[in-house]
Specification:
binds adenosine-5'-diphosphate, Rossmann fold, about 325 residues, alpha/beta, four-stranded parallel sheet, 11 strands, binds 1,6-di-O-phosphono-beta-D-fructofuranose, kinase, EC 2.7.1.11
Length: about 325
């Protein structure tokens, strides 16, 4: 075991996701047991650039394990995209004697670490935290399960009113370029159509179905947000083929990012957090800790990619239930 690590810097970056605090707790707990100091860096790369560092204790994080959001706050940082920003971040890491970094974020955050590794040679470990579930090297990202549960809870309520009025309802869920939330929440609420950014066929199925829709029942469409689809576009296409429909749109928006993490996300956070510290103690660097087939798994940052495809089985389900 490598005992040289004395002070791990921790930060959360990109969109927050339920389960981030549980991961921070897991990290702090196992670090303390191994006599390693933990330093929190506020607001992701922005805090690193601003020198916003403060010590963390597992006793503080224990109180946050059930809470959504992130105790460390998070941000997207334009300055970190510049070499000047990254040099400033490096200076502050050195001044604070940080000898390893654990980042919780999405693929953008890990790309940032990869770029940072050109000038900073301390070990980095990543934990996948995004509600979008669009990172390879892990079956689930932190926050996805909670976000889907929030979406389902709300869609169930929309169904009650949709069915009472025999209305067409379009519910837009998050995932700029990822359909995982839409597929999971759409299938499990019995949606009549599910539209995701990764597929083109689902539009054809929707229009085929809706052109014969006779307002004798509710018609539920779950669609991912995004430039190429989104609720407005779907609404105008439906009206083109069936102009008389009584249609309403609900955008679930940021409500999907908040709330207490599900049991699954809390456990995932703790497991990934503990494994991140263990990986550092085993001299691992520049890897993301994930879960594949319920086993902990490490993926090098340079092999980790944003997933632009949902897996084959989900695609088949989408086709089956889209018809
Ligand atoms: N190629 C890159 N080089 C340096 N920093 C990057 C790069 N890509 C992303 N980042 C940093 O990572 C931050 C988080 O990325 P973002 O895509 O917003 O969220 P996420 O990590 O959730 O995907 C960005 O705001 C930026 O500061
Ligand atoms: O909070 P913002 O900046 O409006 O971002 C919204 C986006 O963040 C997400 O919730 C999560 O994105 P990341 O976790 O990849 O940053 C997307 O689903 C959504 O499109």
């Amino acid at each position: 075991m490598n005992k040289k690590i004395k002070n791990i810097g921790l930060f959360t970056s990109g969109g927050d996701s339920p389960g981030m605090n549980a991961a921070l707790y897991g990290i702090a707990k196992v670090a303390e047991i191994n006599g390693i100091k933990i330093t929190g860096i506020l607001k992701g790369y922005e805090g690193m650039i601003n020198g916003d560092f403060s010590p963390l204790k597992s006793s503080d994080l224990k109180k946050m394990v059930h809470r959504g959001g992130t105790l460390l706050k998070t941000a997207r940082s334009k300055r970190f995209l510049t070499i000047e920003g990254r040099k400033l971040a490096l200076k502050h890491l050195q001044e604070n004697n940080i000898d390893a970094l654990i980042a919780i974020g999405g693929d953008g955050t890990f790309k940032g670490l990869l770029t940072f590794s050109e000038i900073c040679d301390i070990p980095f470990i990543g934990i996948p935290g995004t509600i979008d579930n669009d990172i390879s090297g892990t079956d689930y990202t932190l926050g996805f399960d909670s976000a889907v549960n929030t979406a389902i809870e709300n869609i169930d309520k929309i169904k009650d009113t949709a069915e009472s009025h025999n209305r067409v309802f379009i519910v837009e869920v998050m995932g700029r370029d990822s359909g995982y939330i839409a597929i999971h929440s759409g299938l499990t609420t019995g949606a009549d159509a599910i539209l995701i950014p990764e597929s083109g066929k689902d539009f054809i199925y929707l229009l085929d179905k809706v052109k014969n829709y006779d307002s004798e029942d509710a018609f539920l469409v779950v669609v991912s947000e995004g430039d190429e689809i989104g609720a407005e576009l779907v609404s105008s296409k439906i009206k083109e083929v069936n102009p008389n429909v009584d249609l309403r749109i609900t955008k679930l928006g940021h409500v999907q990012r908040g709330g207490n993490p599900s049991a699954l996300d809390r456990m995932l956070g703790i497991r990934l957090g503990v494994e991140a510290v263990k990986s550092l103690l085993q001299s691992k660097k520049n890897v993301m800790v994930g879960i594949l087939n319920n086993q902990l798994h490490l993926t090098p940052f340079n092999e980790m990619v944003k997933q632009h495809q949902v897996n084959k089985e989900l695609h088949e389900l989408l086709e089956l239930f889209g018809k």
